[in-house]
Amino acid sequence: xxxxxxxxxxxxxxxxxxxxxxxxxxxxxxxxxxxxxxxxxxxxxxxxxxxxxxxxxxxxxxxxxxxxxxxxxxxxxxxxxxxxxxxxxxxxxxxxxxxxxxxxxxxxxxxxxxxxxxxxxxxxxxxxxxxxxxxxxxxxxxxxxxxxxxxxxxxxxxxxxxxxxxxxxxxxxxxxxxxxxxxxxxxxxxxxxxxxxxxxxxxxxxxxxxxxxxxxxxxxxxxxxxxxxxxxxxxxxxxxxxxxxxxxxxxxxxxxxxxxxxxxxxxxxxxxxxxxxxxxxxxxxxxxxxxxxxxxxxxxxxxx
Length: 304
Known about the structure:
The protein has helices spanning about 65-70, 105-115, 135-140, 160-170, 180-200, 210-220, 240-260, 265-275, 280-285, 290-300, and strands at about 5-10, 95-100, 120-125, 145-150, 155.
C-alpha cells in the first residue's frame, strides 16, 4: 500500500488483589514506511514502562453490568523497543500506542476497553526506556505515549484521546448528557494536574503533608456531589477513568512508604475504589502494585 503523509493533531472535546499473568505474542515484523510533513502540537505528560490483561464487551455503563459482562482473554503484544520493526503504518488500522504502566496511557486504554473496542483499536506497546526510533520519526514526533493512529492522523494528549474515542467510536457513552454533570466534569478534569502535584508533594518528605491530605479531602467531597451512584458523576464516566490510574499508584505507594491509608475516614473514596475494581475494562489494565511501588520509589526516593 502506498505511503500517505499523516497529520498530527490534538482533539478538543465537545463539552469539557490479584493480577493475571500476561501472555505475549510477537507482532509480525514489517518494513518501514517513510512519511513526512508532520504538523504537530506539543504535548505534556510523564510516563513509565511495562505489564498485564483479559477482555470483554458491555452495553450499559453501570458498575454492576460492567462487572458481570462476559470475558475473553486478550493476549497483549510485547513492548516494541529499538530493535523492533514497526507495524504496517498508516494502512487503515486504528492503533493505540501505549506503555503498559504509564498512567496517562492507561486512561485511554481503559476507555478503549470500556467502549468494547478491543477488536477495533489495536494496542501497540512501546518500551519507553528503549524506544524504537521509527516511533518518533514516523508516528509521533513528540515521542510520547499515548497516541492514536486513526485515518492517517496521529493524535495525542490522554484526556483528548479519551474524549475523542468516546465521541467517535461505537459503544456505550462514557460522558453524561446532563449539563450540570458536564460542567462538574470540566471542573474535575481541570483539577487533575493540581491534584497530582499536591499528592506527590509528600513523596519526598518524611510524612504526608497537609496539602496532600487536603487534596484527598477534595476528592472525597467531589464523590459526594451526586447521589445516583458511587462515581464522580454518579454513574461511571470518563472522569473516573481519568483519576483511577493515579489512585492505583498512590494507594500502595503511600501505604508502603508512609504507612498512610488514603481511604481512612474517607468512605466515599473507599467505596469508589471498591466499585472501580469491579469494572472489567479497568481491571484488564491493572499492574501488580509491587511493581508500581518500586517504580515510584525509583522515581521519587532516589536514595532507596
